[in-house]
Amino acid sequence: MIELYILLIFMIIGAIIAIEVKDLLSSVIAVGAVGLGLSIVFLILKAPDVAITQLVVEILCLIILIRATLKKDIPFSTSGRWFLNTLITLGFIIIFLTVAIKSLSDLPEFGYPMMRVAKTYLREGLAKTGASNIVASVILDFRAYDTLGEATILFTAVIGVLTIVRRIGRKKENQQIEEEDE
Amino acid sequence: MIIYLLCLVLFCCGIYCILRKRNIIKIIVGIIISEYAVNLFFILTAYRVGGRAPIFSSEAEILNMVDPLPHALVLTSIVIGLATTALLVAIAMRIYEKYGTFDITKIRELKG
Amino acid sequence: MSKEHEKGMSLIVKTITRLTVGLILLYGIYIVFHGHVSPGGGFAGGVIIALSFIHLMLAYGREVAFRKLSKATASVFENLGAILFLIIALLGFAGGYFFLNFISKGEPFRLFSAGIIPLCNIAISLKVGAGLFAIFVALVLLRLDGESKK
Fold first, then answer.
1. Distance in angstroms (rounded) separating the CA atoms of residues C110 and B53
2. How many CB atoms lie within 10 A of CB A40?
3. Most A CBs within 10 Å, among C33, C135, C137, C150, to test the A interface
4. What class is the B2-48+64-109 domain?
């Protein structure tokens, strides 16, 4: 399990670089490194379905973020109430960590899950659905309502993006902005 | 237990980025990182020592499988995360087009 | 050389794209169809199918990609995927309840098995692939409009 710790520390370092670096493009690429490391961690934890999905989704996410940040290097401003902001943020993180560490003791030990529901799926999944991939039978047969909700959310997101991006009825405003810029 | 702690540290990195930074792209980056940490936590709770992937084989009988339920939940969560990230990026690009900046403290001052 | 060849990236990228984009699309379709017997499924396959068209768009420019799959066709495919998934779920009422696996299960470990699961995989892959392609096209068009103003 030592490789798991190494990969997790690599991901934390990547996240810190992504947060603290000034250039936006470098930050986005560091997030890509974190996501690809996460894909390898999924593979080590014996979740090949999730690993494939994470790999391809990460690539698409990276392309979208690079499209957004290309040629837009904005100067990094830290003026204003940075001291108060940092104090509040650190206080929130400390409260969160204490609560989380207290609740960690109630979790089952790492490597020994409870599997109360999953026992039924593993025992009867092949006979009830005929699919040898248990994850596919869970998302499309036992818990198909989750997938229906996911489809609804995806549909809403596509409609939202198309609504935000559309040009019809906005021409006058844009011309005014152009004049103000010049 | 230490592995759960490392996962929590990753989540705290994302939370710090969301609360502290002013650039919209940095805030999106923080949301992505904390989403990764939550997905990782689900998969960590599903792992079983010496377990195999939850796929039956026709040649050999596999007895010691990992928990397939969190895998299914995370699989839908990843795709939803991509869709919401795209929505956030669209809003950020529209804000950049309108105000010419990604800084959230500057946006409040310029009233369009 | 016609006008199309001047847009997009360099000749090397275009040649490699022409050789690989069909294989990527085929791999996505393979992942979708074998989702119930091996790792993969509708989500991963749909994203790979969307990535193949995005690859085409990045290398050749948007006109060539739109000739293969236009924006209207993408939205039609997305709605088709959603409606197909709902129809499969509603057909379960013929036997009793929502999402009933009404087709015979078949022999395990074969391609044609598991009842409605492969059909649901195809519907979800259509929905995810077309939806993500539509999102990407919308973002790219916004960017190009912003550049032309300057």
1. 19
2. 17
3. C135
4. mainly alpha
C40: number of Cβ within 10 Å: 27
Amino acid at B21: K
Longest dimension (CA), chain A: 70
- Tell me whether residues A74 and B30 touch, CB distance under 8 A: no
pLDDT in tens, C30-56: 988 888 888 888 888 888 988 888 888
Q: List the end-to-end C-alpha distance of chain B, in Å, as a whole number.
A: 51
Angle between helices C42-60 and C11-33 (to 10 degrees): 170
Q: How far is CA C139 from CA A58, A137, B32, B112, C35, in A?
A: 17, 35, 19, 23, 30
Domain extents for chain A?
1-71, 133-182
Domain positions in chain C: 3-149
Nearest to C49 by CA among C72, C33, C60: C33
Q: How far is A123 from chain C, CA to nearest CA, in Å?
A: 15
Complex ipTM value? 0.87
Whether residue A94 lies within 8 A of chain C, CB to CB, comes out as no
B78/C43 touch (CB, cutoff 8 Å), yes or no: yes
Interface chains of chain C (3 or more CB pairs under 8 Å)? A, B
What is the CA C40 to chain-centroid distance, rounded?
14
What 8-state DSSP symbol labels residue A108?
P
Question: Does A15 sit within 8 Å of B13, measured CB to CB?
Answer: yes
Tens of pLDDT, residue by residue over A115-169, are: 788 788 888 777 777 778 888 888 888 888 888 888 888 888 888 888 888 776 5
Q: Which residues of chain C from 9 to 68 reach within 8 Å of chain A, CB to CB? A: 31, 35-44, 47-48, 50-51, 54, 58
Chain C residues with CB inside 8 Å of B55's CB? 38-39
Is A107 within 8 Å of chain C by CB?
no
